[in-house]
Amino acid sequence: EGRVLVWLTKKVVRRVKDHITEISQKDARYLGGSEVVIGDELDIEVDTAEFGRSAAQTAKQVVMQRIREAERDTIFDEFKHREGTLINGIVQGDSAGGIVVDLGRTDGIMPYSERIPREQYRKGDRVKAFVLEVRKTNRSPQIILSRRHPGLVEQLFAQEIPEVSDGTVEIAAIARDAGFRTKVAVRSNDPNVDAVGTCVGLRGYRIQSIVRELDQERVDLVLWDRDMLRFAKHSFNPVEVLRAEYDETNERVLVVVPEEKLSVAIGKGGRNIKLASRLVGVRIDVRSPEQYEEEKTAFSAQEEQEEVVADLTCLPGVGESTAMSLFAAGFDGVEAVAAASAEGLSKAKGIGPKTAEKLIQAAKKLLEEEGY
């Protein structure tokens, strides 16, 4: 009661060099019994009455410092285990680094960059946040909170939907534009469970509770599919996708939707198509049927031109520029050049009568060669 007990830990050695940290075996056995051997450590009670005022003050400071360090370590360990989970707190106000949130044993900080755009916080407001990171500092641990991170949505699903929590329904991918729209791809690990319907809930109750927590951010539920094209189609739900095909040349998925749904599929500022691309993990372009046909026709014409130019450059002295001139003049290959007249061929830009005659002869010779 009101007493402070102090022990000094000393190591048992053969020959004492430091009287503060070491003790001889003989003295150690006198204090601790005959079982003490060299190498043991012995805690020896110190008479605090021998301490001067200055020493006592120093000891007090050291003890208080160690207590604070132990408390910091305890708080760090407690919150480190909560990284990647949700936490509830009360807004305390603004600071230079962001919003200060009271978490009970300590405060967390929500950087301005981790807020949901347009969301306002007042002192005393209750807030649910995602524990983004817990950092050890020289002072108290720094707990970084977020309401912008996709993990917030994932954890809300686990909290509100038992089938997600127990693994029956799995979140396969999330693409989020915080404050505006989020796409969540789900799949079922039970053939008897409808992944999308389960997340929506009876009369939409489950998904609406999540939307309310996200301050009315729109949440699109997408059925995940291992087939990239089917997954791309699902990512535009409820917009009807007429067709989806992979363009290897441009490494993209081309999606065709009805003309009247084109603006909806693209979304305001391109948000919907950007989120769909991020969700599927590939660039997605959207076209109306008319745009698709125009692009397809233009692509076919481009392919034809490339084939003709490649054919014409087989002629001696004909480079890509000359081949392009011949193609533009209507000569669609070596056979066409061989069948042309010098007068007709010289109508191509940059080709005179003499050059035309040489090209005709070269084309005829090439056609006569075996294997062409």
Rg for CA atoms? 38 Å
Secondary-structure-derived class? alpha+beta
Give the count of structural domains.
5
Q: List the secondary-structure elements in sequence, H or E.
A: EEHEHEEEEEHHEEHHEHEEHHEHHHHH
CATH architecture of the largest domain: 2-Layer Sandwich
Task: Describe the main β-sheet briefly.
Answer: 5 strands, antiparallel
CATH domain fold name of the largest domain: GMP Synthetase, Chain A, domain 3
How would you portray this structure in words?
InterPro entries: DNA_repair_Rad51/TF_NusA_a-hlx, Hlx-hairpin-Hlx_DNA-bd_motif, KH_dom, KH_dom-like_a/b, KH_NusA_2nd, KH_sf_prok-type, NA-bd_OB-fold, NusA_N_sf. This is Transcription termination factor NusA. There is one protein chain. The protein is an alpha+beta fold and 372 residues long. The chain folds into five domains: 6-78, no CATH class; 79-148, Nucleic acid-binding proteins (OB fold (Dihydrolipoamide Acetyltransferase, E2P)); 151-224, 2-Layer Sandwich (GMP Synthetase, Chain A, domain 3), CATH 3.30.300; 226-287, GMP Synthetase, Chain A, domain 3; 302-368, 5' to 3' exonuclease, C-terminal subdomain (DNA polymerase, domain 1, Orthogonal Bundle), CATH 1.10.150. It contains 14 helices and 14 strands. It has helices at 25-32, 53-80, 150-160, 162-165, 195-200, 205-213, 228-234, 262-266, 271-280, 289-312, 320-328, 334-339, 342-345, 353-368, and strands spanning 6-13, 22-24, 41-46, 86-95, 98-102, 107-111, 126-135, 142-146, 169-177, 181-188, 218-223, 243-247, 252-256, 283-287. A five-stranded antiparallel sheet has the order 6-5-4-7-8. Strands 2-1-3 form a three-stranded mixed sheet. Strands 9-10-11 form a three-stranded mixed sheet. It is elongated and about 120 Å long.
